[in-house]
Design brief:
The chain is of the alpha/beta class. It folds into two domains: about 20-155, Four Helix Bundle (Hemerythrin (Met), subunit A); about 170-365, Translation initiation factor eif-2b, domain 2 (Rossmann fold, 3-Layer(aba) Sandwich), CATH 3.40.50. It has helices at about 55-60, 70-85, 90-105, 115-125, 135-165, 195-200, 220-230, 240-245, 275-280, 315, 360-365, and strands spanning about 20-25, 30-35, 50, 175, 205-210, 235, 255, 260, 265-270, 285-290, 295, 335-340, 345-350, 350-355. The strands form three sheets. Strands 6-5-4-7-10-13-14 form a seven-stranded mixed beta sheet. A four-stranded mixed beta sheet has the order 11-8-9-12, covered by helices on one side. Strand 4 (about 175), helix 6 (about 195-200) and strand 5 (about 205-210) form a beta-alpha-beta unit. Bound molecules: 5-S-methyl-1-O-phosphono-5-thio-D-ribulose (MRU). 5-S-methyl-1-O-phosphono-5-thio-D-ribulose binds next to helix 2 and strand 9.
Amino acid sequence: MKDAIPQPQRRKPALPATVAWIPDGDGSPLPGVLRILDQTRLPARVTHLDLVAPADTHAAIRRLAVRGAPAIGCAAALGLAAACQHANATTADFLCEVRKTADFLATSRPTAVNLFWALERCVSAVRQATETSVAGLKRALLDEALAILEEDGRLCQAIGQHGLELFGGRHGAGVLTHCNAGALATGGRGTALAPVYAAQEAGLEPRVFADETRPLLQGARLTAWELQHAGVNLTLICDNMAAQVMREGRVDLVIVGADRIAANGDAANKIGTYGVAILARHHQIPFYVAAPYSTIDATLAGGDAIPIEQRNPDEITAGFGRRTAPRGCPAYNPAFDVTPHELIAGIVTERGILRPPFDAAIAALPQSPGR
Ligand code: MRU
């Protein structure tokens, strides 16, 4: 085992919730607002945004104030409930309003399937509600959104418990992760980081290498921030250092999250993940994906069909307001890439670890609500 990289002793108070529903007043859940931790301000500032209007929720998802596949789903569901709570409509008009608002929110980002999954689950809950007054439908919509958020917390916990197996009881294992798939990306303790937290609680003291994650630095701004809060041994590296860190023998396993997993196990995640998977294969380091079942899109046969979000090239040439390339310099900015299933050793879900062949393992999973 390599020498540990020296760590400052730091443990801070519990993290604020990434996504929450805040009732306005008298103890009943409606009316209320969707409250999100504004991740564009981290790590410098801990501030929240209270959202009601669909355009505001859409913009918050689009500009990554709330991000990470499960958190996007939770925020969209609660955003739908927030947007529709003030509708002054007949039952039939209310159903149209819910459909229209869900369709609008679904255009905020294209890759994370949890967004569409959560919205469709909410629309179905309203359609199937037994209480058909408009007030009853508003409540059914909110209840479903809250159930998605609450469930996500439990799923993360279960992913953590299953993922603990990856450590095989090893103390001080080196874990490399890319982007942020922790508490800030979910309604719970994360997907890729959940096994890390479980290992920490089990006294295994994992050592995490967090890729910085160009261009928007989710690894540096978010993963480093939340792991530091949790007192986890953490070392931040630039993306282009992963090969060297692996070669030095510091990495025992890689765990990343996913935004969408196709029926054959191909997994879309933050741009750069595919490169990490290739490096891991070269160094014979197991590469794991951790994601809830809702991230699997079994309607897509393979990863080539996963839509890849293209973002503004300014994020590369003038990120965070500082120009780092000449004005007018062309840049290409796909936000995600697809790791082929051949490079994945296992997919850690709330139902256990799926192993290759993934097409058979995924086909054998029972369907979940909203699909
Ligand atoms: O663009 P982002 O920050 O939303 O990308 C997030 C990721 O790629 C995460 O790894 C993925 O959504 C899994 S989050 C549990």
